[in-house]
Amino acid sequence: MPDPSTSSLPALHQPVVFVDTETGGRDPAHHPLLTVGLVTLTPAGEVTRPLHLRLRHAQYDVEPDAMAVNGIDLAAHDAAAQPPEEVADAIRAYAREAGRVMLGGHNLSFDTGFLRPLLPDLSTLFRRGRVDTKLSAQFLIHAGLLPRKVGTGLDRLAGHFGFAYRAHDALEDAAVTARVYAELLRLTAQSTSNRE
């Protein structure tokens, strides 16, 4: 029997690029975007093309609470980071290689709020539709396909599907979000086949 975590996703006809960000706070107008993680979920159910980018800033206006959550050491971060223009170009190159596909994430509006200042052309890089696993999970809870006790937090969803997960690393968050989305698709497909 094939491993369900790597089986194909028949309803997924093109890849989806999943993104996550780590930031210095909650307000994109005041706090810096620090890291961006990108992965691609293929119709074969594989999470591929991991890319982790760090942004260098002239100054870092950060909230202590945000830094406690993301665990980023700013001195080490700054030494390894790239200028924002280089990060933007790397994301554009990543998107070009994937083709004009959907962008996905967990609570994606937070991430896109920080990505838009970096990428004013964000809406042209990806299709108009978006995938948000937080909203998808809420829908499946309302539909009775996902237990209410699981909730919509990424850590809770990852645990429900049996994924080991250490939160608040942009690349790891993007990868686990893609895996959770694949499991949500499989859950829906299983429910549909049970009704037929």
Outline the structure in words:
This protein is α/β, with parallel strands linked by helices. It has a single domain (4-195), classed as Ribonuclease H-like superfamily/Ribonuclease H (Nucleotidyltransferase, domain 5, 2-Layer Sandwich). It contains eight helices and five strands, in the order E-E-E-H-H-H-E-H-H-E-H-H-H. The chain has a five-stranded mixed beta sheet with strand order 3-2-1-4-5, sandwiched between helices. Helix 6 runs parallel beside helix 8 (170-195). The two termini are 22 Å apart. The model has no long low-confidence stretch (mean pLDDT 93).
Task: Give the low-pLDDT segments.
Answer: none
* Corresponding CATH architecture: 2-Layer Sandwich
Can you count the helices? Answer: 8
| Corresponding CATH superfamily | Ribonuclease H-like superfamily/Ribonuclease H
Largest sheet: 5 strands, mixed
- Which structural category do the helix and sheet elements fall into? alpha/beta
In one word, what is the shape? globular
Percent of residues in beta strands: 15-25%
Number of strands: 5
**Text of the CATH class:** Alpha Beta
Radius of gyration: 17 Å
Q: Can you list the strand order of the major beta sheet? A: 3-2-1-4-5
Assign the CATH topology. Answer: Nucleotidyltransferase, domain 5
| Helical residue percent band | 40-55%
Tell me the count of domains.
1
Distance between the termini: 22 Å
Arithmetic mean pLDDT: 93
Protein name: DNA polymerase-3 subunit epsilon/ribonuclease T
Keywords: Exonuclease, Hydrolase, Nuclease, Nucleotidyltransferase, Transferase
InterPro entries: Ribonucl_H, RNaseH-like_sf, RNaseH_sf
Organism: Deinococcus budaensis
